[in-house]
Amino acid sequence: MLTIKFGTDGWRGRIAEEYTFDNVRRCAQGFARYLLDYTLHPEEIARGVVVGYDRRFDSEHFAVAVAEVLVGNGIPVWLTETATPTPVISYSVVAKKALGAVNITASHNPPTDNGFKVRDEHGGAIDPAGLKEIERRIPDDIRDVKRIPTAIAEATGMLRRFDPAPAYLEHLKDLIDVEPIRKAGLKVAVDPMWGNGAGWFPRILSGDKTEVHEIHSERNPIFPEMRRPEPIPPNVDAGLAFAHRIGADALIITDGDADRVGLGDEKGQFVDQLRVYGLLALYFLKIRGERGPIVKTLSTTSMLDILGKKYGVPVYHTGVGFKYVAPKMLETNAMIGGEESGGYAFRGHVPERDGILAGLYLLDFMVQTGKKPTELLQMLFEEVGAEFFYKRIDTPLESHLVKEEARKRLDAAQPETLAGLRVVDKVTTDGYKFVLEDGGWLLVRFSGTEPLIRVYCETTHKDKVDALLEEGRKLAGIA
Question: What's the whole-model pTM score?
Answer without folding.
Answer: 0.94
